[in-house]
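In the present case, backbone shapes were mapped to integers, as reproduced here:
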Amino acid sequence: MNDAGPPIPKKPSLQVIAVEDSQSDAELLARFLAKAGLVCVIRRVQTEHDFLHELSDLMPDLILSDFSLPAFDGLRALELAVIHAPGVPFIYVSGTIGEERAIDALRRGAIDYVLKSNLSRLPSAIERALRETALKAAERESEQLRREQEQRLQRLTRTYRMLSSTSSAILRLRDRVELLDEVCRIAVYQGGYERVIISLRDSDADSLRPRASAASDADLRRPTDPLPQAGDSPTVQSRTMALRAIATSAPTVLNDLAAESQLPGDSYPSDEIQVLLARGYGAAATLPILIDGTPIGVITLLSTPAHVFDEPEIKILSELTANLSFALQYLAKDEAVHFLSYFDGLTGLAKRPLFCQRLAHLLSKPPLGGIRTVVVFDVQKLAAINDSFGRYAGDLLIQQIADRLKSAYTESEHIAHFGGGTFALTLATAAQANDTGRSLQNAAAQVFSAPFELHGEELRPVIRSGVACHPHDGNTAEVLVQNAETALKAAREENEKYKLYGLVTRHPTSRLALEARLSGALERGEFFLHYQPKVCLDNGGLEGFEALLRWRDAHDGLVPPSLFVPLLERSGAIVDVGEWVLMQAVHDIRTWFAAGLTPVRVAVNVSPLQLRHRDFVDRVLSSIEPASRLGAGGIDIEITESMLMQDLELSIRKLSHLREKGIGVAIDDFGTGYSSLCLLARLPVDTLKIDRSFVQALADSANGMTLMSTIVSLGHAFQMQTIAEGVETVQQLETLRLVKCDQAQGYFFGQPGPASDVPSVITRLAHPQASRIPAQSRKYYGDRTEGLDPESASAQRSRSKR
């Protein structure tokens, strides 16, 4: 034969299956093939069952088939051969096949056909068929090799792109956590690995802990992989792949996990391999992260396909690991510089700028109840200690104080060292109303209860403290810290152990300047209202709001009401400002009603000057007209008992007139003035607002609960609603329900907020739910089982009202 192509495979003999019902015809085929020099081993079959059995038992080199058999069909034999032996040449040898059927057979997959009457053509047909088969096999092998090379090229291209992207991330990112997360993400989504884990040694260098990981979308459904395990000692060299890489400072590669699991010995932990195989992984690689030749961690890459971690792949991954090592080393040095910029080198605590940054972050969070307080304190006579024992001893004392502060306050970011003997704390717990300053002083002084030991000597240093509360003493972190420092300075000057900023005596010129700016505040639009909700204790539904006056001075920012309200009353400007409060509250009610919200009632505080003004009733009524635009909402007024006693008869007439017009009247701070049964019987009052001091006393003794129950019963006896002010804890809430108080108001339900916050409060509380309080109080109002931020009852009341 002169046909071009690969040579026919040289075999000892050709394995041939002959589909032939005639034994004599099969022997004739064998003689012709032998005569042509073809050594063949022929297995004759004449049924479909025998044919399938031979195909499964022997993969033949050639199939010769008659076309017509009594128990079988040549076309069926061809169909089975195409399915079960697709690469084996199939030649028909028949005396009955016609040209049309022969052409159809060739279309179905036969190589050739030879008539039994012309068997001399059979050897050449077989040689040509074998040569064509060998040629097709070579083409398939070449195509497979080409596809594998393309896949490898694509794999390397993807890996190089991953290397480039990680290099870019290393140059761009300056945060260690973000960098590790980004490297893992890039390795998964650009490198094509199913899961990537970066683990670093703990500071004690005795264990590895995962610090970042990423997984493909499909791989996210798998359980977390066990590599590496926290607490495993790197000295155990064969426990995991990660620890082997740490111990050898070289990559650990298992390129075929299935094959590795079959190998004898224990070069790698079989349990680890079995887990990875069970989770569908085919290959794994772990590379050490080295800094100055010392392994500080590993990067583990898991792949579903096997044999992906060849030499070029590992070379690129080693380069990626080297870049990551360099980045971590650079970040460590940068963090050291950053530490010295923001942290005190002596104590490890934050310096003043970082403390202010952290405090600003805390103030930006949604309030969880209470008020944030800043305490700045310093150690007295530190200079005397330095003079007596030396500067080293003074530094040692400062370090011991810092250590005790860190132990006392687990959130060390809430502690700072301002230098010298001055420290700062930020707290979010409330003290007793009548003992705020002393409690805050104790918050800092608790670390000084035990003596300090220096050179065998016991020292008991004492401190002075300055306190500032947010938002009353400042609306920003910088202002709060500055005001706490001002209070500390005042404590030094007045030889006090502690000083509240709100009680610091201002210089007369400062008060005059404040009063001068206050005179034009109304015209400049510097006043605004905050609203605090009142809640029904029976079902947790919203009963209304109290409007509270606020002033944001262009010079000093938010000014505490305890400072500017007395100035307004002394100057007489409270009358105009009070009228503005009424009009603004009405405007806000109309806005909420127009927006489709549930109509609400808003209570407005009235000053003695307003009530004594001869046209007080007309001013109030003109402010709320037309009432029809308020829907079912409306305005209520709150007055104190002391105001009524100044001109009782006139006050009763005015209040009665307002009640006839649908305006509710409440006695504010009930129990602190001139309460009497005779007075209650005559007053045109709808509501008694029980002073917060009685609420705070509920937990002090049984008498506190008895007194509260008496006040509530007294109000109900005169057909009045009762509202408890200053509710701060679940325990107070439960007690008030027990004594059947009608409503409650306080930081437990929400701090006063701007008008823009009211719609969300209305939506949250407008639909009563039975037994909402207290069983579900945490769900609706947050967990407030502890007290609020430190603030005395009198100071908080004066700062919150109006």
